[in-house]
Amino acid sequence: MLFAGSKVCGQAAGRTINPGPNQVEIIKADSLVGLNQAFMEVRKLMGNVSLRQGTTLLYCDLAILNSTTNNLEAYGKVRILQADTVTITGDTAFYFGNDRKALINGRVKLDDKTIVLTTKKLDYDLNSRMAVYNTGGRIIDKKSTLTSMEGHYNTVTKIFLFKKDVRVADKDGTLKADSLRYSTASKEAFFISPTEIVNKKDTMYANAGMYNTVTKLSNFTGRSTAKMEDYILTADTLFYDTPTKIGISKGNVIFVSRKDKVILTGNQGRYYGQTGITRVYGNALMKNILENDTLFLTGDTLVSLDNKETKVRKMYAYKKVLIYKSDLAGKCDSLSYNVSDSTIYFYQKPILWSAGNQSEADSINILLVNNKINLMNMKGKSFVISLDTLKNFNQVKGRKIVANFTKESKLEKVTVDGNGESIYFAVDEKNKLTGMNRVECSKMNIAFKKNKVNRIAFIAKPDAKFVPPKEINEDLKQLDGFKWRLNEKPTKETIIARVTPPPIVKKVLTDSVLVKKEREPVKKQSPSVPKSKSAKKKPLKL
Questions:
Q1: SS (H, E, C) 414-429
Q2: What integer best gives the mean pLDDT of the chain?
Q3: CATH fold label, 356-479
Q4: Interatomic CA distance for residues 516 and 10, integer angstroms
């Protein structure tokens, strides 16, 4: 027995009285002093102190051990080893043997052979293997450095829970968040708060989801945005692979091409950065912001191609295509838009409207100059209709038609090649009808001025007929196949309405009404008895 104030020099080993299974045992110390405390067995160990509790070892320069409460105070070069897997060092520590919990202060470091955690204060539960800090911490693994104000780390599952000013950094970029769950084994970060991920050329913003710091794979389940070098992709859910630059998005997709000022929207989208292909479908819409104008394009599917090697930039639209800008509107089955040379190709019986003109053919391509229609090439069953100031329809048909337009997108010249037919109304200087010309000629050139026929040249022998105003009837005023389809002309409003989902109308019934309807039996009325006015069902108010 050691009495209060007695001192033993040299090494003191195994001097614990009646050690239990969880009792902290003394392995050695340079000196040991018994302290006088009522009903307590307290000893002070100094110099090269070693203690043990099961498979846990504790080393320090100075320790005060209360064997009655099984608690320990440790000072100077504190080191705790748990089963050769976790090593914790610090300046001071308080160890509660019965609960197997340690409070370490000072220059704290935790090393579990996977990560190294440094902080000023650490609470460690040896039963749950959970380490907790709230004074700021720094974690280093093989490839990343993580910092936060608060953290919880499980040394078994290798999962961190971070809070406040969370930052994950490596040689390729950084992740910033307010809270984060991070697996040091799989290198995956999970978050449910606003998060920013910055890589070499890409920046991502998300509210919820997962990010792998090694593979650079992102899977965001909340409204998220990925900013690339030339593009911005936003959606309700977003998968993005940084190395391959592949993005898959769903829900209210917005894809922005910065250099072309093109915006794609839709229900779903896919982006392939290495090939420069973007696909949007489901209520798909393209808005190309031009100078003093905007080009709207919608279809079931929109595809954008930006080939950086060939410098070719194209847009494709498939199925039920509508197009609109201030001086041009049209509809077709599919189209391609070459952004590089401002040429638009329309396929499968397209129809276009521009400044009082209607054009139809099996296929059409137009050239834009300064974002205005300049040239139109029509092939196969081509038909051009121009409405003049007297509401007469000038008409031109042929196998091939080339139409030139003024800077104001008004019809200037029409060249017909093959099976040409035309009807044009002659008007004098006082804007009075003088007659109607009906001509058949395989090739012809027609010049317009202010939407009126100014002059016409027939390259082959024409079959022409002039009809005075009094002899003009409805049968003569139209070429075969004539159909004025202005009511089908798309507008900005019709395109926006087409891609905007209808609002969901929710009918809400009160519980009392539902219960009453369930309990009341259905009464069948005899067909021989006429229904009275009072028996009519009143509409249910919603």
A1: EEEECCCEEEEEEECC
A2: 84
A3: lipopolysaccharide transport protein A fold (2.60.450)
A4: 90
CB 284 within 8 A of CB 302: yes
- CA distances 148 to 81, 86, 168, 196, 212, Å, are 25, 21, 9, 15, 18
DSSP 112: -
Closest CA to 255 of 302, 206, 198, 308: 302
Fold of domain 223-348: lipopolysaccharide transport protein A fold (2.60.450)
| CATH code for the domain defined by 1-135 | 2.60.450.10
The span from the CA of 365 to the CA of 383, in Å, is 14
Specify the higher pLDDT residue, 335 or 142: 335
Torsions phi, psi for 469 (to 5 deg):
-55, -40
| Sequence-ordered list of residues with C-beta below 8 angstroms from that of 429, at least 6 positions apart, any chain | none
Written as one letter, the residue type at 202 is D
Q: What are the b/e assignments for 321-331, b being 16+ CB within 10 Å? A: bbbbbebbbbb
Of 13-17, 90-94, 173-177, least confident by mean pLDDT is: 13-17
Is 90 exceeded by the pLDDT of residue 458?
no
Structure tokens at 291: 């100078």
Task: Return phi, psi of residue 511, to 5°.
Answer: -60, -40
Dihedral sign from CA coordinates of 241, 247, 251, 256: positive
Q: Are strands 188-191 and 195-198 parallel, antiparallel or unpaired?
A: unpaired
Q: What angle do CA 85, 91, 93 make, to 5 degrees?
A: 70
Q: Which of 133-147, 150-164, 398-412 has the lowest mean pLDDT?
A: 398-412
Instruction: Report pTM.
Output: 0.73
Fold match, 1-135 / 356-479 = yes
Per-domain residue ranges of the chain: 1-135, 223-348, 356-479
| Four-CA torsion 195, 197, 202, 207, nearest 10 degrees | -20
- Structure tokens given for 154: 């499980």
State pLDDT tens for residues 82-122. Answer: 988 899 999 999 999 999 999 999 999 999 988 999 999 99
Percentages helix, strand, coil for the chain (3-state, rounded to 5) are: 5, 60, 35
Spatial CA neighbour of 198 closest among 240, 231, 226: 226
Distance of CA 223 to the CA centre of its chain: 7
Q: What are 52-92's pLDDT values in tens digits?
A: 999 999 999 999 999 999 999 999 999 999 988 899 999 99
Cα(418)–Cα(378) distance, rounded to whole angstroms?
A: 12
Other CB atoms within 10 A of residue 83 CB = 11
C-alpha to C-alpha distance for 463 and 360, rounded to whole angstroms: 24
The pLDDT of residue 513: 38
- Nearest residue to 82 via CA among 55, 104, 59: 55
